[in-house]
Amino acid sequence: MLIANALLAGLIFGIGLIISDMANPAKVLGFLDLSGNWDPSLAFVMVGAILVGTMAFALARRRQRSMLGAPIQLPESKHVDRRLIAGSLVFGTGWGLAGFCPGPALVVAGSGQPDAWLFVASMLIGMGIFSMLERRPLKRE
After folding, report:
1. Long-range CB contacts (< 8 A, 24+ apart) of 97-105?
2. Which one is predicted more confidently, 53 or 141?
3. Is residue 141 one of the residues assigned to a domain?
4. Which residue segment(s) compose the domain that 19 sits in?
5. How does DSSP assign 71-96, residue by residue?
6. Within a domain: residue 128?
């Protein structure tokens, strides 16, 4: 049941990305082009997503289990550290260069667009490298 609900949530998310045009790299790059022909429309999509996310997190903080019975796992860290900043910079750089972030890239890759496949492949390679680096034992001096 959890897998079916996750699939439904992903489908709704993907449809939302298509309707909002967030899966269109040209639209995203137009939003990021502050010095040129700036397109502010995606800011409204982001504000809407922040509002929905804020309400969902407020509800989740008061619960131990999801409405489907799965445990709720929220981030425990409340501080900004170097890893968070570095990850944000890498994410933002990739988004700005390609016009994709992970969710929209998967939606567009599903349509067979080669640029999206290249982005998804690069993203998976990067995730694999990160995972390997995380498993390395720390060297203590």
Report:
1. 98/25, 99/24, 99/25, 99/26, 99/28, 99/29, 99/32, 100/25, 100/28, 101/28, 103/13, 103/14, 103/17, 103/22, 104/17, 104/22, 104/23, 104/28
2. 53
3. no
4. 2-135
5. BP------S--HHHHHHHHHHHHHHH
6. yes
pTM for this predicted structure = 0.71
- Asked if the structure places residue 140 within a domain, the reply is no
Return the structure tokens found at 113: 């667009």
Amino acid letter for position 16:
G
32 three-state secondary structure? helix
Q: Please tell me the total count of domains within the chain.
A: 1
> Residue 141 pLDDT > 70, yes or no?
no
Taking residues 54-60, report their average pLDDT: 92
CA 28, CA 141: separation in Å to the nearest integer? 45
How many residues belong to the chain? 141
What is the mean pLDDT of the segment spanning 44-69?
90
CA count, 13 A, side-chain hemisphere, 87: 8
pLDDT tens by residue, 15-44: 988 888 888 888 888 888 888 888 888 888
Total H helices, total E strands in the chain? 6, 0
